[in-house]
Design a protein that fits this description.
Domain Methyltransferase: 46-133
Keywords: Methyltransferase, Transferase
Order of helices and strands: HHHHEHEHEEHEEEHEE
Number of strands: 9
InterPro entries: Methyltransf_25 (IPR041698), SAM-dependent_MTases_sf (IPR029063)
Number of helices: 8
Strand order of the largest sheet: 3-2-1-4-5-9-8
Distance between the termini: 32 Å
Pfam families: Methyltransf_25
Number of domains: 1
Helix content: 25-40%
Structural class: alpha/beta
CATH topology: Rossmann fold
Protein name: Methyltransferase type 12
Radius of gyration: 16 Å
CATH class: Alpha Beta
CATH superfamily: Vaccinia Virus protein VP39
CATH architecture: 3-Layer(aba) Sandwich
Shape: globular
Length: 210
């Protein structure tokens, strides 16, 4: 694996406090979170994958009535989340080896999944499926096209990677998810590329592409 990808967890451990300061409570992704929550049943269970300190995503989910389980590989992030939101469930876990023996109505990997190498991203789709309840919603962010990109955070290399859209669609389909919506570099959401899917069941509509 790319060494910069290997360093992601350590980077967030070292700079957890700085990340929280810079991230703040601004909810630029509100419209996507609203769409995600709209697909969930009443009193849903949501798995926040790569939850960070719980601000502001988990806060929003909790305020809308979701029972949140957050996982993050950085213990410092989980400790902060526990302090902010003691009524949620917070676990130190690497998403790549996640096995909770539980299913959820919603799965969210917002600005976390795209730190994995391409091969690890491919391996995540069975993990998503294994933790998805019937009709579960799945939302994650990716890059706009296949490739790797190295940003910077607190003077250290910050790794990102993406598959191409066709491969994401195939992986979703193979795992039983229909694409509800997909927007490349959404200008209303910080130019993030967003995928929103739903696990197929007998009552679900056909896949919608955009």
């Amino acid at each position: 694996m790319n060494s910069d990808a290997d360093n992601i967890v350590g980077l967030y451990r070292r700079h957890a406090a700085a990340w929280l300061r810079q991230r703040g409570r601004d909810l630029t992704e509100r419209k996507w979170l609203e769409r995600f929550v709209a697909l969930l049943p009443a009193k849903p269970k949501v798995l926040d994958i790569g939850c960070g300190p719980g601000e502001p995503i988990a806060r929003y989910l909790l305020e809308t009535g979701c029972a949140v389980t957050g996982i993050d590989a950085a213990p410092e992030m989980i400790d902060t989340a526990k302090g902010y939101f003691p009524n949620a469930t917070w676990l130190v876990s690497d998403m790549r080896s996640l096995t909770l023996n539980a299913t959820f109505d919603g799965l969210l990997a917002w600005n976390s999944f795209f730190h994995l190498s391409p091969e690890d991203q491919r391996r995540m789709f069975p993990v998503f499926r294994r933790h998805a309840a019937s009709g579960a919603a799945l939302m994650f962010t990716s890059g706009p096209s296949f490739g790797e990109a190295i940003g910077s955070f607190e003077g250290e290399a910050l790794y990102h990677a993406s598959l191409d859209a066709a491969e994401y669609r195939q992986l979703l389909d193979d795992s039983g998810f229909d694409v509800v919506d997909h927007v490349v570099e959404d200008p209303a959401c910080g130019r993030l590329t967003v995928w929103l899917g739903r696990l197929r069941n007998a009552a679900s509509p056909a896949s919608v592409s955009s």
